[in-house]
Amino acid sequence: MRSPGLLRLACYVIAIPVFFTEVNGQIVPGTGFRQTRVGDDFEDEKWQWFPRGEKASREQDNRERRPLGGSSNGRWFESPKRGMPDIIERVPTPAGGLPGSKGALKLQTLNSGIPGYPSRKMEQDDFIMACASRIGGQSVSRGPSCTCRIWLPPYENWEDRSGSHFGYRIDLKTTVPEEKERRGILFFSRKKTEQKSYWPGFFFEFHSKTDPRYPEDEAVLLIRGDHLGREVRGPKLAPGWWTFGMSVTPDGRVHYYARRGVEDLTAADRIYSSYPYSYQAELFATHFFNSVNQNDGQTWSTPFIIDDPAIYLSR
């Protein structure tokens, strides 16, 4: 689910100090009641992904190629808009993961655009948690939040490309006025409103030492976004386990949290808060992941491993 400008990340990153003053009424992701009808711990050794044919690519060529792929437990589904990663595989939990965790999920992609037609440009596939069919959209008055542990590989295992490699995002809904209709030299405004979807979240950006702009390999966290939807630069990302989370407060504002390791998030882990695109959220629909690569038909995306993605309601 792409917000405007994914393919132009490097052009719209703004530098803002990582840590901000206290936000009144903040909700730390993971606060309240875990929603057990959604989420996953990947501990079932029989967990399996069923592709069900070629992936969807509605965004590029208006073809969904149904039936869509899905998981054996019914908690995940393929995006009809952009398809699914080519590898969705339960793997042993890497060292340093959650205590007692034996299984996690590897996400990696090769053909991220139209099947069989490499575009040779940066594209992405989606891996989406099924929430609407299981618990429905949640009003922000209930203080929804999500968390996930994500393992980042050593830099030498990243796709050798400077740019965005992975996304962890949320699907929000709000109500906006319909756009004005122009006829001739006049504008006719309508009083009708429509529901608008938008997708704030995190992107993991890699700077390759083979790129003359960077003296060494590094990864940084980008946050989408500020009131104009521009990416905000966050902290550097070291290889290994990280805990990420997002919450939405009843005022419709989005709050972004991250910490190294697998410990639960705290108020001190808040990086940024905003009204992305100047929207005030009304409903929290789900969270999802993006696997991003240079879609040349030969180059695999960076392999990331996720564990224990969960959704919570604070009231």
List the defining traits of the structure above:
315 residues, mainly beta, Jelly Rolls, 1 helix, disordered N terminus
State the gist of this model:
This protein has one helix and 22 strands. By secondary structure, the protein is mainly beta.
Question: How would you characterize this protein structure?
Answer:
The protein is mainly β and 315 residues long. It has one domain (41-313): Jelly Rolls (Sandwich), CATH 2.60.120. Helix content is 1%, strand content 42%. The protein has 1 helix and 22 strands. It has one helix at residues 58-61, and strands at 13-15, 33-34, 49-50, 70-71, 76-78, 87-92, 103-108, 122-129, 138-139, 144-152, 163-177, 181-183, 186-188, 193-198, 201-207, 218-224, 231-236, 240-248, 254-260, 270-274, 283-294, 304-313. The strands form 4 sheets. Strands 1, 5, 8, 9, 11, 14, 15, 16, 17 and 21 form a 10-stranded mixed β-sheet that branches. Strands 2, 6, 7, 10, 18, 19, 20 and 22 form an 8-stranded antiparallel β-sheet that branches. A two-stranded antiparallel sheet has the order 3-4. The two termini are 28 Å apart.
